[in-house]
Structure formats: C-alpha cells, structure tokens
Amino acid sequence: MNNEHHEHSHGHHHHEAPSSGPVLTIRAHSGLSGDIFLAGLLCMTGMDESELNRKLAAVMPELEGSVHLIRREVHHIGGMHAQVDLPHQHEHRTLADVLAIIAAGGMSEEGKALASRAFTILAEAEGAVHGKTPAEVHFHEVGALDSILDICMSCELFCLLAPSRFVVSPLPMADGFVRCAHGVIPVPAPAVLELMDNVPVRPFPGQGETVTPTAMALLKALGAEFGPWPAMRVEKKALVYGTRVFDDAPNGALFACGRTESDPNAAF
Fold first, then answer.
1. Cα 155 from Cα 207, distance rounded (Å)
2. What is the pLDDT of residue 245?
3. String of DSSP letters for 23-88
4. Nearest to 254 by CA among 35, 40, 38
5. Residues 84-93: what's their mean pLDDT?
6. pLDDT band at 6, cuts 50/70/90?
7. In the chain, how long is the greatest CA-to-CA distance?
8. What is the residue-averaged pLDDT of the chain?
9. How many angstroms separate the first and last alpha carbons of the chain?
10. What is the mean pLDDT of residues 239-251?
11. What pLDDT does residue 264 have?
12. Rounded average pLDDT over 202-225
C-alpha cells in the first residue's frame, strides 16, 4: 500500500512539472542529506542571505538567521556547505504537529504541499519500520528543528527553481552503522531501507550513513527520476558538502542546472 502511494505521488508530481523549466541534476558522489539538499538548491537559485532569512522566517520565526552558505574545503577540494546553527530541541513531534507548523507558516502553497508530502512519506516509512500508523509515529531526529528547516526550505527552493526534470544519479550505499534515538543501528537506516524500492543504488567504499531518511523522503516527494547525466547546456553548478566527513572521499554531491535544446529559453 505504501509503495503504491509513493509511486502515485512520484508520478503525479512529475506530470505537473513545468515543461519549460530548467533541468536539475544531482550527482551523489558519496552521500545525500538534508543539509546537502539545502546547500545545493541555495546555489542553484542564487538566493542572497536577506531573501533566505525572509523565507526562513516564513517557515518558522525561530529559523531566521540560522543558515549560512559558506565555502568549505574537504581533502583540499573546495565546495559549498550549509552551516546551520539552531538551538537543540528534544521535542518529539507527531506528523500532525509538523503538518500544523507547515500549514501555519508563510511558505508558498506549492512549497507547503511538497514539504507536507515529504514528511508524510517519512512518517509512512517510520511507521512501517516500527509497526505503527503514520499518525502514531513520533519523530525523534526528524521532528527536530533542523529537519523541518531542511525539508521546508528545500521544497520552497525547489518550487522557486521549478525544474521541468529532476534527475539523480544512483545512490551510493555503504555498510556500517549509525547512532540514533533507537541506539546503534545498521545502515542503510531502516527508514531509508523502507524507501529504497525501485531506487537504483551503487556500492560506496566508505563506512557509515551515506543517504539519510530526510534525503530519501525529499527525493520521493520531489519526483526524482534516476539515471545518467541529462542532456543539457549547464548554466549553474556547485560541489556541495554535508556535515559528515569520510576518511577516503569528500562527502560531496554535485548539483547542476541547465537548459535542453528544445527549451525556447535555452541559449544554444
């Protein structure tokens, strides 16, 4: 049932995509997380800090001033990183709590719909893992302010970019474990595993969590298709780093945005 719902959501959104928008691709070299999504979409939209703060405050007033897009070097290679400074909260929020926060905020209607969809997909996955209904799920890490920030802002920025296609590389998966509210668990985390149906993956030589539940929920909610580089003329690109650093590889994802030859706005 859940998988059918996800596939329906995926297809439904894809048909609604604007036909003349740019093409967006994420090439996930060694991982994908909420903060990588946030940094990459900030780079693609070119949003300045004052506009970013206005949009953050629209989601929740306490988010204003919490995000700074900074340059960071990992293994001597420069990239961009979303530095997030938030008060740590131990609140356990339900799906209804999170949906109420989204509904009460000042995001665009389309941004609200996508963010609500992403959290619902996450609650369905967590519910399937723990044998609960989505309404009964208490988000631990996911209910915290940073996940509300990552999901809501990523959805709002995605709407602003309005891509006609969203193409993602096969996702890198590693063995190992991650510490969470439920203790030490193997990776991929159970919620990621629940959302992996029909998602192309490839081996990653590092150890530990490469793709987070937040990232998986965003990929599903935003109607990602998986495959090689799309044909386009690149207009914007950015190498983006997450918080985690792997010993043998930059935790990077490459974001690129451009136009196809059939696009009347393309500069071919």
1. 29
2. 77
3. EEEEEESS-B-HHHHHHHHHHHHT--HHHHHHHHHHH-GGGTT-EEEEEEEETTEEEEEEEE----
4. 40
5. 77
6. very low
7. 53
8. 87
9. 45
10. 81
11. 60
12. 94
> DSSP labels for the chain?
-HHHHHHHHHHHHHHHS-TTSPEEEEEESS-B-HHHHHHHHHHHHT--HHHHHHHHHHH-GGGTT-EEEEEEEETTEEEEEEEE--------EEHHHHHHHHHHS---HHHHHHHHHHHHHHHHHHHHHHT--GGG-EESTTTSHHHHHHHHHHHHHHHHH--SEEEEPPEEEEESEEEETTEEEESS-HHHHHT-TT--EEEEEEES--B-HHHHHHHHHTT-EE-SPPS-EEEEEEEEE-S---SSS--EEEEEEEE-TT-TT---
Residues 172-185 pLDDT 10s: 999 998 887 778 88
Confidence band for 216, pLDDT divided at 50, 70 and 90: very high
Q: What is the pLDDT of residues 32-42, one digit of tens each?
A: 999 999 999 99
Please state, in angstroms and rounded to a whole number, the distance separating the CA atoms of residues 218 and 125.
13
The pTM is what? Answer: 0.88
Say how far apart CA 32 and CA 47 lie, in whole Å: 21
Q: Is residue 37 within 8 Å of 238, Cβ to Cβ?
A: no
Pairing of strands 165-168, 23-28: parallel
Burial 72-88 (b: 16+ CB within 10 A, else e): bebeeeebbbbebeeee
